[in-house]
Design a protein that fits this description.
Blueprint lengths: L27 H10 L16 E6 L4 E7 L8 H5 L4 E3 L4 E2 L5 E9 L9 E7 L3 E6 L4 E5 L7 E3 L9 E9 L21 E2 L2 E7 L1 H19 L5 H16 L5 H15 L17 E6 L10 H21 L5 E3 L2 H10 L1 H13 L2 E3 L14 H19 L5 E3 L10 H7 L4 E3 L15 E5 L5 E5 L12 H9 L10 E5 L10 H16 L6 E2 L4 H9 L7 E3 L15 H27 L6 H14 L11 H26 L1 E4 L9 E4 L6 E6 L5 E6 L3 E6 L10 E6 L2 E5 L3 E6 L2 E7 L4 E2 L9 E6 L19 E2 L6 E5 L3 E9 L5 E9 L9 E9 L4 E8 L6 E6 L2 E6 L5 H4 L4 E2 L3 E6 L2 E7 L4 E5 L2 E7 L12 E13 L4 H11 L3 E5 L17 E3 L7 E8 L3 H4 L3 E8 L5 E7 L3 E7 L5 E5 L11 E6 L4 E8 L1
Parallel strand pairs: 13-14, 13-20, 13-21, 14-15, 16-17, 17-19, 18-22
Antiparallel strand pairs: 1-12, 2-3, 2-5, 4-11, 5-10, 6-9, 6-12, 7-8, 7-10, 18-19, 23-48, 24-27, 24-48, 25-26, 26-27, 28-29, 29-30, 30-31, 31-32, 33-34, 33-39, 35-36, 36-37, 37-38, 38-47, 39-46, 40-41, 40-43, 42-45, 43-44, 44-47, 45-46, 49-52, 50-51, 51-56, 52-55, 53-54, 53-56
Bound molecules: zinc ion (ZN).
């Protein structure tokens, strides 16, 4: 045994026997409240960290001299143009305006000797509006935001030589979010002036700046970590010790404070090395800058926003090598390329370096409810081609963080455009049901899938706060499948992108995860593609979501800015016609396919489909712009049609049988009766793009459209299929003579106008809220009168008063029915609309029962409930519909066709077409004025079928009359225009639609002669078809949307006079593209 311890067993303890002093517990709420005080403005500003942020601030002459030149009116001149003018002297405190004007400042600075050796010297400019700093020789260098945000530009070292240096500031008299009068979305204030508040040379204290971010993040940990975690208590303790250590004016104390901060943040937060630990990250930070191509500002301002925002990102990438920045919208890259080549070259270099990532694959971040299927295709064609041409690479991820709901066909179209991934987060705005997944496989109507990720921080403009990182885990709904997520950060909507503060905060967030834990580990340096690559590896485990991603908000966007929507529909139809005819004329005539004109038309239409333009949520200026854009599209269309056909469009009433042809842009035979000069009636019947006219009477057809008036004010319109009873503008009976069936339920009235109060919770132009349905009021009409009684058509007219300022004139017509053609009741309305926060709709109760109604969507049909069983059903109280909505039961149904509308609802047996809204923000005059709207009631035997699909297309593309251009010729000579050229033959499934005929995208460049056909199954069943053409075909291949070959198609051996033919088979709702290479 060893020595003995007489004081007992065990080692001797030095622990004091008596407590030296009382020690208290932290009173949590008091110590937490102290957290913000350390850098708050107000009574302690001169004693807290704020007092040490800068070592020196120099302003005024002789160190800072200012001159200004005012650009005239609302012009946005180039640098060269601006600096060629005489500048006049100005100073801080002067004001500039009004709204939307531009002012160029020449700034001359001399950095004084006492700050020349400082580590970080900046120029601070704040005029509460947007600006762009230009070098003396015309290079855009740095965007400015104003209002205390992004006011600094780091001075180049060459400026610290004691000599005078010159640069320019281009001031835009608008804020990041436009100029809303007292509210973000209020109509712009036309008379805002902006004061230059700061033009300073600032020597920054880097330790103070670093400590500010340290304490910001540690303070957030103290407030936001759960109070039952040791990590929260440690943050509070560290933070309070920092405050206690700080001594105003003592630079050494700043260093001591930062040392304490390292206990919580780790030692590496001042560089990107913080990300080099080998611990597994879960949250992947990706810089982003959402720039609405127009919204609370016009397109022209967006062009400058792009230059401002992306210059800044290139600057930041140099200082923060971990920054990976993703930006979408080919259109914005194109603007940059054309207007700011210097910045574009910088971007190109950063793309090459792997920090700047073009993403999305589309022309703009477009709406996906309203554009046609072909428009969705072209968004990808024009987007992907631009990205490939300029950056050598196509995009893999479709990127729509802010768009208002997602068409059920998008996964199919993405896959056909080379993309396997999709990102959005907008569904987190749903105000009825919470979307249940973060990461999932999204499945299209045809069964195609893409991996969809919705960042759990639920924003695409994260400020990279501690809370954003934390929510990336706490709000993640797919943890069973995969715990990783994207954190999309950076100022956005009005542009901007990540700031240096965001990057500094994220470094500290990572530091916390590696040092104390608990916070999900954020990582930088990966791209969005890297993130999805990892998900793809476990794709088969991800849950699935079939069909549309319906957005439970912004349902008013199917209707707002009606004229703009009408222009979209007409432009899409015009483009179909132009491409068809130009293709034919380039093959059979001597037309050079006008690819450049067609590209310009498409790019214009695609731009206007931007997710604040087409949906109607932009300011008035944007719609003046889009009116001009569409006008040019229609003029170009007219020009191409004229050049291709050597004919020009005329009003039917000016044409004669000999000189006119009817133009049919649809791929099946048509039959219509047209009224020519001298009230002569002619039949346009047959196939092909141009159809000859023949006299009605000579053909043996007996038009039977009759009008009777059985009692005063009551009219009966009848043809061989339908009998329509109209009283006071209302259809009280619609009898189907073939089916022996009444369509309108007894005692009910169709074509009933109804008006609703329309005051949503906040987003006026965007939303129609569920409670508007409770305010339904029927509009009553005056007496109906006879409008026309002709052999081929009868109609009645009714005037309906809406208010003292607004009214509707409605013509209800019935045309003579043609054998084999389903007849419908057509309604044309002219609405004089001057209301405030009212919603006009028209109702059709029908004697049909089904729990689901069908609506045309892009390349197919989407079915939605007609009841409110669950909150998910009820949320769809207003839905998007294209050319038709249909309610069918077994063997019978009713379709409502329209020529320019998108909003619809079917509740029980009541079908309701949305006509006009009258929101006052952000456009105070949205939809005011005259509107021509057409719709039709099409009863049909059988369920929803090809009759409705085709009538929907025909209703939107009535035959047009074209006459010869050259004077003195009696006959139309270009006979080559007549007859079928390429078509689906009669044995093909009637569900198939040959939607697009165009030339190959690369025909010009490769000197090839290809015809592209886009065909889809419109009704959702396996469909076989046979293509025939009069052209000599060398080879046929099935291609994707980008016209890459997928497989060669066997051309049938069967010899026929009129050329090559091939069979094909489409899966339900498949969109197929075939390339015919001509001999
Ligand atoms: Zn947006």
């Amino acid at each position: 045994m060893g020595g003995e311890d007489h004081c007992g067993s065990g080692p001797r303890s030095g622990y004091p026997i008596r407590a030296p002093k009382p020690v208290s517990q932290y009173i949590s709420q008091i110590y937490k409240s102290r957290v913000g005080q350390f850098y708050a403005k107000g009574q302690y500003a001169e004693q807290n960290l704020l007092s040490m942020m800068n070592d020196a601030v120099i302003y005024g002459e002789p160190h800072v001299k200012l001159w200004v030149w005012h650009a005239p009116e609302q012009s946005r001149p180039s640098f060269e143009h601006a600096v060629s003018h005489e500048f006049e002297k100005t100073k801080v405190g002067a004001s500039f305006g009004p709204s939307w004007t531009t002012h160029w400042f020449k700034v001359q600075i001399t950095v004084p000797d006492n700050v020349r050796d400082k580590e970080l010297v900046e120029f601070h400019w704040d005029a509460n509006n947007e600006g762009l700093i230009w070098s003396e020789d015309g290079k855009p260098l740095q965007g400015l935001t104003g209002g205390g945000e992004r006011v600094e530009w780091v001075l180049p070292k060459s400026f610290l030589d004691g000599k005078e240096h010159t640069f320019y500031v281009e001031m835009a008299c608008n804020g990041m979010f436009g100029i809303g009068q007292g509210d973000l979305i209020a109509a712009p204030d036309p008379n805002r002036y902006y004061t230059v508040e700061r033009a300073n040379i600032v020597a920054v204290n880097p330790d103070a700046r670093g400590l500010h971010i340290d304490t910001w993040i540690i303070g957030d940990a103290a407030k936001e970590f759960p109070s039952d975690s040791p990590e929260q208590h440690q943050a509070l303790e560290v933070y309070n010790r920092i405050i206690d250590t700080f001594e105003p004016g003592n630079k050494d104390s700043l260093k001591a404070c930062r040392k304490i901060a390292q206990e919580y943040l780790g030692p590496n937060v001042d560089s990107h090395k913080v990300y080099e630990s080998d611990k597994k990250p879960l949250v992947f930070g990706i810089g982003h800058c959402h720039i609405d191509s127009c919204w609370l500002w016009p397109f022209d301002e967006t062009k400058r926003k792009v230059a401002r925002s992306w210059s800044n990102q290139c600057n930041l990438m140099e200082k923060y090598p971990e920054l990976n920045f993703a930006c979408s919208q080919a259109q914005q890259y194109k603007w940059l390329k054309e207007l700011y080549p210097y910045v574009f070259e910088r971007v190109k270099q950063k793309v090459k370096d792997g920090q700047f990532h073009p993403i999305g694959g589309s022309w703009v971040e477009h709406d996906t409810n309203l554009p046609s299927g072909e428009s969705l295709v072209r968004q990808f064609v024009y987007g992907q081609r631009f990205f490939e041409e300029n950056f050598g690479k196509r995009c893999q991820t479709f990127w729509l963080p802010d768009t208002f709901g997602y068409s059920s066909q998008l996964p199919q179209l993405c896959r056909l455009a080379g993309m396997t991934r999709f990102l959005t987060q907008k569904l987190s705005w749903n105000n009825i049901n919470k979307f249940p997944h973060t990461t999932f496989n999204w499945v299209a109507l045809d069964g195609s899938q893409v991996i969809c990720h919705m960042p759990p921080a639920e924003t695409y403009t994260a400020e990279a706060h501690f809370g954003d990182v934390k929510r990336s885990m706490s709000q993640h709904k797919s943890l069973d499948q995969d715990p990783t997520s994207l954190l999309v950060f950076g100022k956005g909507d009005g542009g901007g992108g990540p700031t240096w503060q965001h990057l500094e905060k994220l470094r500290r967030a990572r530091g916390i995860s590696d040092t104390v834990g608990l916070l999900p580990r954020v990582h930088m340096g990966n791209s969005v593609d890297d993130f999805f690559d990892n998900l793809e590896a476990k794709g088969d485990k991800l849950v699935t979501w079939y069909g549309e991603l319906y957005f439970e908000l912004h349902r008013g966007t199917y209707t707002t800015q009606s004229n703009n929507k009408r222009n979209n529909r007409r432009a899409e139809d015009a483009l179909r016609a132009v491409e068809l005819l130009a293709t034919i004329a380039s093959i059979e005539g001597d037309l050079k396919y006008p690819k450049k004109d067609i590209d310009e038309m498409w790019e214009a239409v695609l731009l206007c489909q931007f997710h604040d333009c087409l949906p109607g949520s932009s300011i008035e200026m944007c719609y003046h712009d889009s009116d001009k854009i569409y006008k040019k599209v229609f003029e170009t269309a007219e020009k191409i049609l004229r050049e291709a056909s050597r004919l020009h469009e005329v009003a039917a009433k000016e044409a004669t049988m000999e000189t006119a042809l009817a133009f049919n842009s649809l791929p099946w035979p048509r039959m219509e009766i047209v009224e020519l000069a001298d009230k002569e009636l002619a039949v346009a019947g047959g196939s092909g793009p141009f159809i000859k006219l023949r006299p009605l009477c000579s053909t043996g057809e007996k038009p039977v459209a009759k009008l009777e008036q059985p009692s005063p004010g009551v009219f009966v319109l009848q043809n061989s299929q339908l009998k329509v009873k109209v009283e006071d503008g209302l259809i009280t009976s619609l009898y189907d003579l073939q089916a022996h069936r009444e369509v309108i339920p007894k005692g009910q009235k169709a074509n009933q106008y109804v008006i609703f109060d329309d005051k949503p919770l906040y987003w006026q132009a965007w939303d129609v809220e569920v409670f508007h349905l409770d305010t339904r009021k029927e509009l009553s009409s005056s007496e109906t009168k006879v409008h026309e009684i002709k052999k081929h058509r009868v109609s009645v007219i009714t005037r309906t008063k809406i208010s003292d300022k607004s009214h509707i004139e409605t013509v209800i017509s019935l045309s003579a029915s043609s054998p084999g053609e389903q007849s419908y009741v057509e309604v044309s309305s002219k609405v004089e609309w001057h209301e405030t926060m009212k919603f006009l709709k028209v109702e059709f109760p029908v004697d049909v029962r089904n729990t689901e109604a069908s609506y045309e969507t892009q390349f197919g049909v989407v079915r939605r409930p007609t009841h409110y069983n669950t909150s998910w059903d009820m949320a769809k109280f207003e839905v998007c519909s294209h050319r038709f909505a249909d309610l069918s039961e077994h063997d019978y149904g009713v379709s409502i066709l329209n020529d320019c509308k998108y909003g619809f609802a079917t509740t029980g047996n009541l079908m309701r077409l949305s006509l006009l809204r009258s929101s006052k923000a952000p456009d105070a005059h949205a939809d005011m004025g005259t509107h021509d709207i057409r719709w039709a009631i099409l009863p049909h035997q059988g369920g929803l079928g090809h009759v409705t699909v085709r009538k929907g297309l025909e209703f939107n593309n009535p035959l047009k009359i074209f006459a010869k251009v050259e004077e003195g010729e009696r006959e139309v000579k270009n006979l080559w225009l007549q007859g079928r050229k390429v078509w689906l033959d009669e044995t093909s499934s009637s569900a198939l639609v040959l939607d697009t005929v165009k030339r190959g995208e690369d025909d010009d460049e490769k000197k090839e002669k290809n015809v592209i056909l886009r065909i889809y199954d419109s009704l959702g069943g396996m469909a076989r078809g046979k293509v025939r053409t009069v052209w000599k075909v060398k080879r046929v291949s099935k291609v994707n949307l980008l016209e890459d070959e997928l497989e060669e198609v066997e051309v049938s051996e069967e010899k026929e006079e009129d050329g090559g033919l091939f069979w094909f088979e489409l899966k339900p709702f498949e969109v197929a593209t075939f390339k015919l290479t001509l001999a």
